[in-house]
Write a structure and sequence with these properties.
heterodimer; A: alpha+beta; 5-stranded antiparallel sheet; 10 strands; 31% helix; globular; B: 8-stranded antiparallel sheet; 28% helix
Chain lengths: 260, 256
């Protein structure tokens, strides 16, 4: 992506019919640490790789609870994520107060998308530079949604975003038709962690310090697990090989590196 | 000096005469561009509701009274909001029409979004409570009591009451106005004697209660509708009347 004369303002179309500022905003997501979400039969799961900006600082939190029935995982500008998460929390709370029941996830995501769209069309504003993976459960079951800086949103069976997430997406694509039958929460988390393992930079491992796990489901409130609480999940995948076995029609296994 | 005033109480030594409109003068007549609700004009009387194990029955007569005049005798005080809810309105009919319009718009909005999400009876009850309580706080109430009858998302029967001061609750039987004095005891006694009441039993009970209300409530009419939300159906009947026997009225005693 190179600089050109059509990329200074979000209100400028390029002759090819693109708005470069929006595309640049989507690049911000790729700079963030990897995170992914999977939807099972009764649960939705989020896992995230937390990055520490230095050896002295703590690892940046990636998962933000929104309501008892929903939470998000972020990749990109953390401060933009805070604004959006605050908005999502008030939307959920207002809905609970007025209607006495949880806001359905599709409506929540739509309202975020509508809010984010204004930043892609008004002079002087900019898109939110963060990708959100929304995990939630409502009357129609568990959901995973991806909200893009372009303000588009997608309902997903599973999705991975952030740095080196292509490898995770490969794992997810291989198993995507199995997930809807996974009833056990721990099995779903194990799948997610295996996919996350493929996003690691060289010479690093999944540890209790850099992994965050969260889940929500029918009858299960949104719960976040960090630090030592993650140990049991990491143990369950410890015994397996680091790379996933290649599917029959493929050649040698996928490399962990990806386009950047 | 009035306790309430629409204009500022300015200290007397400030001479505003030369600088502002006559509206602000202390001796200017109070002309409210916007009045707050003072009293109901066209009114509906009792709404009754009863919840059985298989569904809910709601009933109201079709009279809009203009004070003591039985003026509008073909008024629908029950509204089918959506497949899961019927509401009944007591009190000012214009305010109830406003509520019906708001609810109708909600239902349209849900259909237009088209994601399958709809408001069940508890949601509508909760929403109504917010609207009515909010108006009460602004000292401009919607002069109504609304009965919300329907089913939850899980299909359970639901019956709720919410009134013009924002009081809101659920019960197995509810009634407004005169109905709460005359019909409610009848409904409760019947439920005690027959806890496994069927929908048809409930409808017959409603007709009995409405008949007694017609005898005793001066603002009632012997023409009413019965709404049922049960077993997948959500319907309001055509107006019907109860058989009455006024022979006991020939020789009243105690009213000399």
């Amino acid at each position: 992506m190179y600089r050109n004369q059509y990329d200074n303002d979000v209100t400028v179309w390029s002759p090819q019919g693109r708005i470069h500022q929006i595309e640049y905003a989507m690049e911000a997501v790729k700079q963030g640490a990897a995170t992914l979400g999977i939807k099972g039969k009764n649960h939705s799961v989020l896992v995230a790789l937390k990055r520490a900006s230095s050896d002295l600082s703590s690892h940046q939190k990636k998962i933000i609870p929104i309501d008892d029935h929903a939470g998000i995982s972020i990749a990109g500008l953390t401060s933009d994520a805070r604004i959006l998460s605050r908005f999502m929390r008030t939307e959920c709370l207002n809905h609970r107060y007025i209607y006495g029941n949880p806001l359905s996830i599709s409506r929540l995501v739509t309202s975020v998308g509508d809010k984010a769209q204004t930043g892609t069309q008004i002079m002087g504003r900019r898109p939110y530079g963060v990708g959100l993976l929304v995990a939630g459960v409502d009357e129609s079951g568990p959901h995973i949604y991806y909200i893009c800086p372009s303000s588009n949103f997608y309902e997903c069976k599973c999705m991975a975003i952030g740095a080196r997430s292509q490898s995770a997406r490969t794992y997810l694509e291989r198993h995507k038709d199995e997930f809807k039958n996974v009833e056990e929460l721990n099995d779903l988390v194990a799948h997610a962690l295996r996919a996350l393992r493929d996003c690691l930079p060289n010479d690093t491992e999944l540890t209790t310090k850099n992994v965050s796990v969260a889940y929500v489901g029918r009858g299960v409130d949104f719960t976040m697990k960090d630090d030592d609480d993650v140990a049991e999940y990491l143990k369950s995948i410890e015994e397996e090989k680091a790379s996933p076995a290649p599917a029959p029609e493929e050649g040698a296994g996928e490399s962990m590196e990806t386009t950047q | 000096m009035a306790l309430f005033s629409n204009h500022l109480h300015l200290p007397k030594n400030v001479d505003m005469k030369d600088r502002v409109a006559d509206f602000w003068r202390d001796d200017a007549p109070i002309a409210d561009p916007k009045k707050h609700t003072l009293r109901p004009i066209v009114t509906g009387t009792s709404v009754l509701g009863i919840k059985t194990k298989s569904g809910v029955v709601i009933a109201a007569d079709t009279l809009g009274s203009y004070g003591s005049l039985a003026r509008f005798r073909d008024v629908t005080r029950l509204m089918r909001v959506n497949d899961s809810t019927i509401i009944g309105g007591f009190g000012d009919y214009a305010d109830f029409q406003h509520i019906m319009k708001l609810l109708e718009q909600q239902t349209i909005d849900d259909k237009v979004i088209g994601d399958g999400v709809y408001r069940d009876a508890p949601s509508i009850h909760s929403w109504l409570r917010c609207v009515l309580y909010n108006r009460r706080n602004k000292m401009n109430p919607l002069w109504n009591t609304v009965i919300v009858a329907g089913s939850t998302y899980a299909g359970e029967p639901y019956l709720g009451y919410v009134d013009k001061i924002g009081v809101s609750f659920q019960d197995k039987s509810v009634a407004t106005g005169f109905g709460s004095y005359i019909a409610q005891p009848m409904l409760r006694k019947a439920m005690e004697e027959n806890p496994d009441m069927s929908i048809d039993d409930a409808k017959r009970l409603m007709v009995r209660c409405l008949r007694v209300l017609f005898y005793r409530d001066c603002r009632a009419l012997n023409r009413f509708q019965i709404g049922v939300v049960a077993e997948g159906q959500c319907t309001i009947s055509e107006p019907i009347s109860a058989e009455t026997d006024w022979s006991v009225g020939a020789n009243p005693s105690g009213y000399e």
